[in-house]
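The following record pairs a protein chain with its ligand, glutamine.
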Amino acid sequence: MTDICSLSLTAVANALQKKEISALETTQACLNRIEATEPKIAAMLLVNNENALQRARSLDAAGPDPALPLWGVPVTVKDALSTKGIVTTAASRILEGYTPFFDAFAVEKLHKAGAVLLGKTNLDEFAMGSTTENSAYQTTRNPRDTTKTPGGSSGGSAASVTAGQCFASLGSDTGGSIRQPAALCGCVGIKPTYGRVSRYGLIAYGSSLDQIGPLARTVEDCACVLRVIAGHDPRDATSALLSVEDYAAGLDKNALKGVRLGMPKEFFNNEGLSAEVRLACEDALKTARNLGVELVEVRLPHTEAAIATYYIIAMAEASSNLARFDGIRYGKRANSTKDLAELYECSRSEGFGQEVKRRIMLGTYVLSAGYYDAYYRKAAQVRRLLRDEYLTALAACDALCAPVSPITAWQLGSHTTDPLRMYLMDAFTLSLNLAGLPGLSLPVGLGKESNMPVGMQLIGNAFDEARLIALAHALEQNLPDVGRPAL
Ligand code: GLN
């Protein structure tokens, strides 16, 4: 019998609908895979064995339903998304044992589409980081080389998808946290347009930047999940009032003919870009050209300012969002404190990790009366410039392409002592969040030196996810497969 876990989501969903396999046997196969691989990769913060099996049994009892695109499909969800009755920690001590009484909108949508939730994936605490090493609980490892990082902050989701523990996972992306781990692990990830997926129930990091999106092993699989979770939700005031397209319909391997793809000079001429990532992207673009793509150079002149701009805005918003975790309204309360001030102080000191504290302090600083104009206001102005530059570049072509991470997955522990060096790793992803635009990360090959996956982004106009998916799918059909990890 074929290994169920090696199938694509699309294939498994089909087989389930046709009753070739049952929801129970599919769920059990994933749980077995989790059991076999978790000791090596530590992608999951919580595995929901009993609930998942129970859910699968009741789905089987009711029988397949063609109206439910994820009927019986096992998925995992980043632990920054609230799950009703299931502990949700955002990988922080301060939320240890916290059990939400509601589902995030995107999680609710997965349930309604028939999915089976296997459990919650690891992340950097409150999604702050690029390696999943900032989790208060465990460090996730890259399934393709367990001495290396899976990326972050949705590293648990990327690792769980890549290791075949599930068919898709939900992540969140504030400055690259879906696209970068997808690139470093070698799976597909989509950061939708800001407003495309409701943030209701997502534990906030930077609210004007955060977006929930899918990670899966193929573009078509991601498209299928995106269609399920996208759409308007009155409980998120920034949720777009737009109808949702069937992103997986009509995918065609010839979709690249006559497409104009912009290459931002500032990304490809960036001195931080490693030779092997550049080469893998260039090879993919050569393939694209052979398939009828016209490559044009575009400019994004303020790219250099994006990292500083992002970190000012993200930290400012984080400091404000995290104020609610005070041991009273939210979060674990410190014991035996003598007064209210000490209660706040101890609860927050004990509950938050080092990186989160650093960001709260920097965020509070840039918002303080004396510095607001110099930092926050200036960052907001540059943000606008960056967005305008993207829109100008996109007016001249159908989509843009860019590397995702300047280097392939690096050794665990190698960047942790230098936060600034870590922030530089986000150079190619975070300006997209500042602009609110959609981005898709596609594995385009293995690095010549490291033999680890390289991801390339396709970037589009607001709400143009369908086009990005169509282009990425066509490219994917013509690129070498990055293969499966031998775990
Ligand atoms: N690495 C970036 C940060 O630390 C992005 C994280 C994210 O997208 N959640 O802020």
